[in-house]
Amino acid sequence: LDKAKPKNRIALIGFMGSGKSTAGKLLAKKLDYQFIDLDKSIEKGEGKGIPEIFNNFGESYFRNLEYRYLSELKDKNRIVLATGGGIVESQYCFDMLKDYFFNIFLCGNPEDFFRRTENSSRPLRKGSNFFINLYRKRKDKYLMLSDLILNSSIYTPEEISDIIYYEF
Ligand code: S3P
To answer: Which residues take part in binding substrate (predicted)?
Structure first.
C-alpha cells in the first residue's frame, strides 16, 4: 500500500465479474465519496448500451470512448470509480489511471468471474476459454497499475470495501 499516493480519486480495476461496481458503491458510501461507474457514464452519455456500441462501432471505438470519459474525471475529487475490465487495453487509459488515480486491483479466480457474469450481456464474455485467456493476458497490466490488490474470490464486496476503508 502506497501511503504517499493521494487517495482522493480511487479507481477499482480488474476483470469482468470481479465486483468493481458492487464494492465501489459500498466504498463510496463509507468514504462519503461520489460513486461513478465508467460503463454507465458512457452508456448514458452516448445514449446506447455497451453491446450496441461494440456491435455498431467496434471495440476500438469503445476504447476511445473510455478514454474520453475517463479524461473528464481527472480533475475531480472524492470519487470512487468503477472502471470497465478492458480499461488496461489502451495505453492512454493506463497512463491516465497511473498518473491521476489510486488504483485498487480486485484479483481472483477467472472461473469465479465467468460464473458471476453468466446472465449478463457483455460483448467480450464469449466462451470460458476465451474469457480465462483474456484475464491471463490482462493480469500483468492490472498488476503494474495497482497501488493495492485484494482478492475478490476470497473476500465479499462488503469485506473489500471495509478493508479499503480501514486501510485508509
Ligand atoms: C469489458 C468489460 C466491461 C465493459 C465492456 C468491455 C472488457 O466492463 O467495459 O463490456 O473488455 O473487459 P465490466 O468489467 O464492468 O464488466
So the answer is: 39, 63, 85, 138
> How does pLDDT run across 8-57, given as a tens digit for each residue?
999 999 999 999 999 999 999 999 999 999 999 999 999 999 999 999 99
CATH number of 9-167: 3.40.50.300
Whether residue 22 contacts residue 41, with contact meaning beta carbons closer than 8 Å, is answered with no
Taking CA atoms only, the protein residue closest to ligand 1 atom 2 is 85
Q: Which three cell numbers stand for residue 9?
A: 480519486
Grid-cell match 446472465, residue found: 119
Q: Which of 122, 126, 136 for a ligand 1 pocket mutation test, highest count of atoms within 8 Å of Cβ?
A: 122
User: Quick check: 30 and 159 in contact, CB under 8 A?
Assistant: no
Domain coordinates in residue numbering, the chain:
9-167
Interface confidence (ipTM) of the complex: 0.98
Give the number of the atom of ligand 1 that is nearest the alpha carbon of residue 82.
15
